[in-house]
Amino acid sequence: MENETKIRPAPKEKPAERKVRLRAALIEAAEAAIAREGLAGLRARDLAAEIGVALGQIYNLVGDLDELFLLVAGRTLRRLDKALAQAGAGAGSPEQSLVDVGLAYRAFASANLHLWRALFEHRMAPDKPLPEWALADQMELFAHILGPLAPLTPELDDDARRLLAHTLFSAVHGVVFLGLEEKFVGVPPGLIDRQIESLVRLTLAGLARGGAPGAR
Amino acid sequence: MENETKIRPAPKEKPAERKVRLRAALIEAAEAAIAREGLAGLRARDLAAEIGVALGQIYNLVGDLDELFLLVAGRTLRRLDKALAQAGAGAGSPEQSLVDVGLAYRAFASANLHLWRALFEHRMAPDKPLPEWALADQMELFAHILGPLAPLTPELDDDARRLLAHTLFSAVHGVVFLGLEEKFVGVPPGLIDRQIESLVRLTLAGLARGGAPGAR
């Protein structure tokens, strides 16, 4: 009954307003379902029932389940972006900033396990490319690494620094991903954080010592 | 028709022999299905049809689809183990050995994309722990990193070196995983290999410079 109250159109709601409201409700329901059950929780029939529309109506609100997932993924990426920005800003040095961004990545992944995993498990249908806006969301994550990396690698050109930022991001991702994977030799969160810190500090020490890769 | 010839019992086959033969055929069919389509290809009905048994008979051959997947995963892990062992043995120095093991990991992942991804995407049913033998298969992978790491980190105790090996393995895994992910800012294979080489060399240079983590 409570649900019904929430989803029943307000008396003077116009069709366009109703569509905006239902679309937002659909995205929230999809986000909650993935957070609870992972990607397998994204079932059109259940989501339609939850927001109180017929199954076919879902496809008036979003193109398909891939698009719905990408909308949820966009929200997850923007929250992640915010968490990394906050972590990076608080540090006293570029080195510490890179460590803190790595630790914030682990904390976000732990706190949003299914939503975070879904970012990497979801596959588009084979013939459908990822939309431009979804790619742009991803690129912003690297900014939190590129920023602190710049003063540490003045000898690198932009392309080489960007590749190094991608390498560092991916390496920390791997430590978090396998560490949080209960199945594949998981690691307690405290140890994962120690791994992240060693990895970042060793890489930076290596940079300081031998010059950066690509400068070779 | 060809299929039928292959799967029809030989005239004097005993029940126990038949079971061994069908179980092997089931595992091979499951492996081929995952290689072709990923985890979504693991469908009991199709596999039963392919090896020519009734659906229910599948569960006389393996406990359930989780067990069937783990049997396939075990084969994948053993082939990966062999590829890493060969790569590590050919190098002239421990440093080069670690680089070569990383590059062999990327080559294996590229050549066995769906089977390799399935190792990390598959989830056991929530109440079922991973069997001991499946964990043992995983631990052997780290040996290819622990070996060359030993002469480079004489000051580390076994636990610290094991953690470092896990960190390095995970970091290279992350570079390969995101690099081969078409969706999440993928990278061409040649560049992935450069990323792996920089990452390993920077980490080792950092170790040589500052002493190892955990020794702090």
Keywords:
homodimer; 216 residues; mainly alpha; 10 helices; 74% helix; 0% strand; elongated
Description:
- The structure is a homodimer.
- Chain A is about 75% helix and about 0% strand.
- Chain A has 10 helices and no strands.
- In chain A, helix 2 (about 15-35) crosses helix 7 (about 115-120) and helix 6 (about 95-110) runs antiparallel to helix 8.
- The longest helix of chain A is centred in the middle third of the chain and has 25 residues, at about 65-90.
- Chain A is elongated, with a radius of gyration of 21 Å.
- The termini of chain A are far apart.
Short description:
The structure is a homodimer of 216-residue chains. Chain A has 216 residues and is mostly helical.
Question: In DSSP terms, counting alpha (H) and pi (I) runs of 4 or more, how many helices of chain A?
Answer: 10
Q: Percent range for helical residues of chain A?
A: over 70%
Give the beta-strand count of chain A: 0
Order of helices and strands of chain A: HHHHHHHHHH
Arithmetic mean pLDDT of chain A: 87
* Termini Cα gap of chain A: 68 Å
Poorly predicted spans of chain A: none
Tell me about the biggest sheet of chain A?
A: none
Work out the radius of gyration of chain A. Answer: 21 Å
Shape of chain A: elongated
Question: How would you classify the quaternary structure?
Answer: homodimer
Share of β-strand residues of chain A = under 5%
